[in-house]
Amino acid sequence: MPPDLPGRGSVRSAADLNERIRTLFRTAGGYLRPHERLEYEQLVTAWALADAAERHPARRSEPVREQMAPAA
What we know:
The protein is elongated. Helix 1 runs antiparallel to helix 2 (about 35-55). It is about 55% helix and about 0% strand. The longest helix is centred in the middle third of the chain and has 22 residues, at about 35-55. It is mostly helical.
């Protein structure tokens, strides 16, 4: 099952997401099948956003698009 992603009501901490990533690799024996690779990519994205939000609590209420540089 894919993880809850930020913007979809996720309240998972970076530590929880990191543990899920580690568990995914342990249960897969170090080799990810395509559906596991998709879950891994989603988890890493969610972890990065959660980690940034935990490091910079004032930014939590800002929409993600305002934190990103405009496209060139």
